[in-house]
Each structure stands twice: as structure tokens, then as C-alpha cells.
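Hi team,

Below is the intake form for Integrase family protein from Deinococcus maricopensis. Please confirm the fields before the structure is written into the shared record.

FORM ID: S-0412
PROTEIN: Integrase family protein
ORGANISM: Deinococcus maricopensis
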Amino acid sequence: MTLVRSSEALALASLNDQALRVRAIQAASTYDTDLLVQLTQAYMTTASKKGARTSRKTLEAYALAVRDFVPWAQASGVTLLHPGRRDGGRYVAHLQTRENHSRGRRGPLSAATIAQYVAGARALYRAFRWSGATEAQPFEDAHVPPDPTPGIVKNPPYTREVDAALAVIDDASLAALLLLCAHTGLRVSEALSLTWADVTPTRVTVHGKGGKVRVAPLGRRVREALAALVRGAPADRLFTWSYHQAVYRMQKAFRAAGCGEAWRGFHAARKHSGTRLYAATKDFTRVGLFLGHSSVDTTRRYVAVQEDDVSGELEHF
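The structure came back. Fields below:
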């Protein structure tokens, strides 16, 4: 199943107002999930704040959300274009009480997953308004309870695991990938998309989320790791793996290092870099610039601060 069909979404966006309204009404009346996914993507890529720069990851997440909400609405007697004012809250309650069966997981859906599904459903209704199909806003008063457990607690940064994994990795490319995430603070998607034209002896140009570009310094260990790679043409990528191939190789390295149970994905490596830099600078603003965050509030969620972080300052009060 292809979650995102850009050409079909763009074709929808190219329709005149009347034709677009008719297609949206037809899709809603027949609960045509595929067409409603395309309608949501057409809105996201042509009329949302980020427009064509909306990330593929966001589009795919919203597609999954629409594919979840529309069948629920049909089974629950919700008329998509004329929903009840409490139907948004009903869907949130359904998500909160539903069991999670994806990827072998059990238990209730996480707060983050619920928020993602509701965000996708809200995007669908913004797409309906954009197409002229309805002005209904069933999620206007729907409250999505936040997760009481901070993300830095649920998925803390790696500590000793990074060096332990590096000690057993004999693949220069895999070592460079881990160091780019854990020492240079790159998202794994950013690292995997790097080309040799992005790399200088001391810095790397990072093409981040939403089309943002930043320049990150390379520490000694990262420079040495990159120097060990076979340099290709400027347009060549440093890494030839897909995301899933990179995860498989890194999980294998963590297991070999005796840290298999500690594997929490590449994002914990990025948090490792943010936490270490904050410990050295005590400056969230500098850490946020380094990680490419638009808000310091986001940076705070990436940094594990010791509980006694201010004990030294308090000593002389």
C-alpha cells in the first residue's frame, strides 16, 4: 500500500473550485479512504503553512491517521460532512481506550500516537474546508490529554552505549553514521541524505526538516570517522542504506556490544549529543542552534538535566 501519492494529490489540487468540491463531497459520502488521504495531502502540500515543504514523514503520519479515522467514523455512524459537535471527543475517547496491536506491541495507545491520529483527523477537516465541502470542525473542542511522562524520561539519551557500540563496529560507514548522530546531533534522516558536497574538513551542511539548512561543526572523532570513508563524487551520498537497513545494522552492533536491550533508536543518539553539549555549555539556546531546533522549548525535551544540576550554585546562597 502506498500511503502518499504525490501526483494524484497534485491532480486534485489542480481542479477548479467546483470540481474539487464535488470530488471531496463524493469521497466523504462514500467514505473513500484513499481519495480522502489524497485530499488531505493536496491541502497539506498546497495550502498549509509549510506547503510543498511538508515532510514526507508528516504526510505519511497523517495518511495513517485518516486511514484510521474514516473507517471509525463510518462504523460509528458519523456523517463526515455533518458530524456532531461531540464526535471529535468520541474519537479521542475511542483512541484512549483502544488496544495497540502494531508491531507486536500491547497495551493502550501512547499519548503521542493519539495526538498524531487526532492531528491527522484535524488536517482532514481543514482539507474539507479548503475544498469547500464543509465548514464543520468536530475537533475544535476535542481535548487530547498530554503524556504525563516527559519524553526525555521515556526515551532518554544513550550514555555508555555509544562508545560500547563503537568499540565493536568494524564497518567504517556504520561508525560514521553513529558519530554523526551522537556527536554532531544529526537526525538519522539528515545523516543518510548527506552527500560529499555537504562535507568540508571541519563542518557539514545539514538539510533538515521543512527545508531548513544549518551548518554543524565536526568534532575530532567525527572527522576521523569521515576520513576513513571512501570519498565519492560530490553528488554521491555518504551512505547507501535505507533507514530500515541502517536500523538493522545498528541494532546488530548494539547487541554485539551487550547493549541490545538498550537500543532505543537513532533519536536517543541525537539526544546524547544535546545532553553532552548542554553539560559543557549550560546554554539551551546554543544547543538548540546546534540541533536545528526552532524553539528552545523543543531543545529542553532533548536534554537530560541532572536533578542536582544547581547544587553548586545553591551552595553559596
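SUMMARY LINE: DSSP finds 16 helices and two strands in the chain.

Thanks, M.
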